[in-house]
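User: Here's a chain of 173 residues. Predict its fold as tokens.
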Amino acid sequence: MASSTSLIRLSPSHFPSTRAHPGAISSHSCFKLSSSRISFPLKNGSFKLRNNAPPLTLKALSAREPKAAVVTKDTWEKSVLNSDTPVLVEFYASWCGPCQMVHRIIDEIAGEYSGRLSCFVLNTDNDLPVAEDYEIKAVPVVLLFKNGEKQESVVGTMPKEFYIAAIERVLKP
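Assistant: Prediction complete.
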């Protein structure tokens, strides 16, 4: 009797995730596979299915660590207003698709400007008072601060060059 196997390809959309930070897969997401068919990875990126396999629990590891830290209303004053270095803050919402694109750009910028610029993200759904203080009406919005004062803003999803140009203006002595 021949064993029945098939090959399938899985993409990240096949795995639910809870995001502690936008753009990152939570390192605490667990997936319970209770089917009698379990897949095993092959070198070509496909998965081979095996019938009658025991239930298995998998834990997703973080695909990448975000470089922009999370700031909240409780840490706003210390992290942003009293910072010794210029600060970039992205205001976002977890349900916002365009915000996901901006997260990737901000994480790249955080790595490139490490030591010269502090980068943070703020969830407007969780910290609405801060968003209201800066009259954030829609997301994504990126604000740049220097010496506790707002210096620049970039509204909407823009190419990386827009953010870089605003950062360079703020970093000028």
